[in-house]
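Justification of resources, computational component.

The compute hours requested in this renewal are based largely on the per-chain cost of generating structure records like the one below. Each record pairs the submitted sequence with a full structure-token output. That output is archived, and it is also reused by downstream analysis tasks.
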Amino acid sequence: MPTAFGAHNTNPLSQFPQAWDRASKVKLLVLDVDGVLTNGQVWIGADGKESLKAFDIQDGLGIKHLSQCNIPTAVITGRSSKMVLARCEELGITHVHMGVNNKAQALNEVLKKTNLRHEDCAVMGDDWPDLAMMSKAGLKVSPAQGHQAVKDIAHYVCSMQGGNGAVRELSDLILKAQNRYEELLRQALS
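The structure output for this chain reads:
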């Protein structure tokens, strides 16, 4: 295990010694949306409806890198949003559950469809509605601004904020722990 995750992210793995081993076993990434894929702000227009969401481009590339390595991503969120659906479609995310009240149950559905176990997945959430979904995950992750209750159960707390690189930080960790990062970097350089 390296002493630091890398030059881009300065979160020392020594603070989270179990994260490297757990990341090496990840076969599925499961993400909440607001506070994870976005910064958690909800923009409401004059019509009283959600009007805007901002997604981090580097997070999206991290999701695509995982997909290249046969590690799919699932999205499970309590809100319904055409913007989320469009972003998931753009990234090739096929397991999308929106308007979910019971995220743990939605995760069980994804695991059944993918023939995977809780231990096979990394789950990133940022607040109380994500706790049950995260509880059995092989790798529990919080973005930097996650609620303290989420950080308390996390195997890894990102140095980056949700909607601002946290998902990329996690994807890079998984790829490095599975010895796939350097191969993808070489491809990008050629």
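Confidence is low (pLDDT under 50) at residues 1-10. The longest helix spans residues 57-68.
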